[in-house]
UniProtKB/TrEMBL annotation:
This is PA domain-containing protein. The keyword Cell membrane does not apply. One of its GO terms (molecular function) is metalloexopeptidase activity. Residues 1-32 form the signal peptide. PANTHER family: METALLOPEPTIDASE M28 FAMILY MEMBER, PEPTIDASE M28 DOMAIN-CONTAINING PROTEIN. It comes from Actinomadura hallensis. Keywords: Signal. It comes from the Bacteria. Residues 254-472 form the Peptidase M28 domain. Residues 138-227 form the PA domain. InterPro entries: M28_fam, PA_dom_sf, PA_domain, Peptidase_M28.
Length: 508
């Protein structure tokens, strides 16, 4: 996420907080070629730890982080390229540019009439990403706000009929994108836009208008929005809205590596983001995912020609923390033929959360939450679940909520799956019973913080998860029949797909 939610030292948790039953040894690989070694056994904890130590050292010598645009990211790219080439993979660096936006100072939202009151940034309101800069004091006009439900406030041109130019537009979140609401308000002559949360949503909106706009745009809590609507309807309400931001273009890069073995027209693609946030070295988020890919890539050629019948591709995404920029660029850059050659995408983001769960992405949409993944995704989920069940290791549903790099693949109609162990969410009592750890505490106490170092990673827990990743990779490298029939198919983009998140920013 863009906003750092937790800071300070790591919460002290036992080094082995998981019950012994959840750290059992691996069974023989199912679906492997006769006589082929077990990829999960080939990948060792020592391999994983060595990569994590390297990423931490890179951060320590490059400003304390590996964020896109900084020297730590550039050195991380060089490290990954070197290890992949040593492993005998065909490797390339894909450069790209993306929009950049940052606030220069704290925003201001204050009522100036009929009475005065200051509101708190981060608590009552937040600036939208790609908001313009400005210092506006003006009357407020509530725009087609619904009496209940989501409504379509600010979504239609007619909503602004009679809107007085120079006023501040007050609209409710819902139905259309924030970008649409801001564009409609700007076209109607609004000097600023205040978007308040819809019913049932907590906290201020931490959103994006996706593209730079010329006027300030802020999002408030539901409670503050309702208060402002009532005051606006009475008449005489004036607000001061002040924002100061810079925007432009930045450059980053993806690293893409292919096995030399396997069908070029039926690619199993494993992805993990390589960048951290600027607040810390990002070892759990997401050096763990990158280390898993490197460790598997380093041993996959040992499966031989019979074990790697399908091309396996390892992708290390840049600028994920800036809004899934690297994976989005990659998918958008593919030709129809290239897109059709990708059988599936596996995504891994945070694999060693100290108070985590073993979340397998909900490919069959059985939880009825998040987005529905393309056909074939349920088969991927079942492979992970069957493996962990064979080891008597608990799993839980991880919804596809658009917060990681599977999003662009799902949008393009490519089956997806993968794992995560939790970020800033809070562990429930049922999860604590199943996985150990502490109920009522966050999954990763150092999420997006300076303390996200090697000591923040539960290494033995991570190894059990990487075992599952290696196992599923080995099965799919040999056959994708369960996912796509084993034949090249043209993915069908889902026109109803609307990401709830675009990386760290909500879009509607």
């Amino acid at each position: 996420m863009r906003k750092k939610l937790l800071t300070g030292a790591a919460v002290a948790l036992p080094a082995a907080f998981l019950p012994a039953a959840f750290l059992t040894s691996a069974p023989p690989a199912a679906g492997a070629a006769p006589g082929s070694p077990d990829l999960a056994e080939l990948v060792t904890l020592k391999d994983l730890e060595a990569h994590l130590e390297a990423f931490e050292e890179i951060a320590d010598y490059n400003g304390g982080h590996r964020a896109t645009g900084g020297p730590g990211y550039g050195v991380s790219v060089k490290y990954v390229v070197g290890r992949l080439r040593e492993a005998g993979l065909t490797t390339r660096v894909q450069n790209f540019s993306y929009p950049y936006w940052r606030e220069k100072s704290d925003p201001v939202l204050a009522r100036t009439a009929p009475s005065k009151k200051n509101y708190r940034p981060g608590k009552d309101f937040a600036t939208f990403a790609y908001s313009g800069s400005g210092d506006v004091t003006a009357p407020v006009r509530a725009v087609d706000v619904p009496a209940k439900g989501d409504g379509t406030s600010g979504c239609e041109k007619r909503d602004f009929t009679g809107f007085k130019k120079g006023s501040i537009a007050l609209v409710q979140r819902g139905t259309c994108t924030f970008q649409t609401k801001a564009a409609r308000a700007r076209a109607a002559g609004a000097s600023a836009v205040v978007i308040y949360n819809k019913p049932g949503e907590k906290g201020p909106i931490d959103g994006t208008v996706s593209e730079p706009v010329e006027i300030p745009v802020v999002g408030t809590t539901r409670e503050l929005g309702v208060e402002l609507v009532k005051a606006a309807k009475k008449g005489g309400l004036k607000l001061r809205v002040k924002t100061a931001a810079v925007h432009g273009k930045r450059r980053s890069s993806n690293v893409i590596a292919d096995t030399k073995l396997g069908r070029e027209d039926n690619v199993v693609l494993l992805g993990a983001h390589l960048d951290s946030v600027e607040d810390g070295p990002g070892i759990n988020d997401n050096a763990t995912g990158a280390a898993a890919l490197l460790a598997i890539a380093g041993k996959i050629n040992e499966l031989g020609r019979e074990g790697v019948r399908n091309r396996v591709r390892f992708a290390f995404w840049g600028a994920e923390e800036e809004g899934l920029r690297g994976s989005s660029h990659y998918v958008e850059s593919l030709s129809d033929e290239e897109r059709g050659s990708i059988a599936l995408n596996l995504n891994f983001d945070m694999l060693g959360s100290r108070n985590g769960t073993r979340g397998v992405h909900d490919g069959d949409h059985s939880s009825r939450s998040g987005m529905r993944a393309p056909a074939g995704s349920g088969a991927i989920e079942k492979m992970f679940r069957d493996y962990f069940a064979s080891r008597k290791l608990a799993t839980t549903e991880a919804e596809f909520n658009g917060r990681s790099d599977y999003g662009p693949f799902i949008e393009a109609g490519i089956p997806a799956g993968g794992m995560e162990t939790g970020a800033d969410g809070v562990k429930t009592a049922a999860e604590a019973k199943a996985f150990g750890g502490r109920a009522g505490k966050v999954y990763d106490p150092c999420y997006h913080a300076e303390c996200d170092r090697l000591k923040n990673v539960h290494l033995r827990f991570m190894k059990t998860n990487v075992d599952g990743i290696a196992h599923v990779t080995q099965r799919l490298a040999r056959s994708t029949v369960a996912v796509n029939g084993g034949a090249r198919v043209r993915p069908v983009r889902d026109p109803s797909y609307r990401p709830v998140w675009r990386g760290p920013y909500q879009v509607r």
